[in-house]
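Try this one yourself first.
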């Protein structure tokens, strides 16, 4: 797998998210941003899976604990969406855990609740 592919996908996601943030502003539910972001990425020709179940595997035991990836783009980049006043460290830890469990290398944490977009996007890597 090529890191350039993941970076190009991430660039597309951030570009679409920026335009959505400008157009819709903060204050909507996370699910609304998820639906619109997914739709807009698909319009650009990207494959997007929503609410992907993420089991925990430990000692040959599979535990379906209700973890879900908000968006999985091109089966390479995990996008975790928030609509909160401010991101906190646990949000990045959650995304890193999702990356490890799903064996993916790049994730984006996007907070549509922040009025300033440059604070709203965090890139999280897992061995990239």
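Now uncover the answer:
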């Amino acid at each position: 797998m090529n890191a350039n592919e993941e970076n190009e996908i991430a660039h597309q996601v951030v570009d679409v998210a920026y335009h959505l943030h400008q157009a819709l502003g903060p204050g909507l539910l996370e699910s609304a941003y998820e639906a619109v972001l997914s739709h807009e990425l698909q319009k650009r020709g990207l494959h997007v899976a929503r609410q992907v179940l993420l089991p925990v595997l430990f000692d040959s035991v599979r535990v379906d604990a209700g973890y879900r990836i908000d968006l999985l783009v091109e089966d390479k980049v995990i996008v975790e969406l928030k609509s909160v006043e401010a991101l906190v460290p646990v949000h990045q830890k959650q995304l890193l855990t999702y990356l490890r469990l799903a064996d993916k290398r790049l994730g984006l944490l996007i907070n549509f609740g922040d009025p300033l977009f440059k604070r709203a996007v965090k890139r999280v890597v897992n061995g990239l």
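Discussion: Strands lie at 48-53, 56-58, 61-63, 68-73, 77-82, 106-111, 121-125. The CA atoms of residues 44 and 88 lie 31 Å apart.
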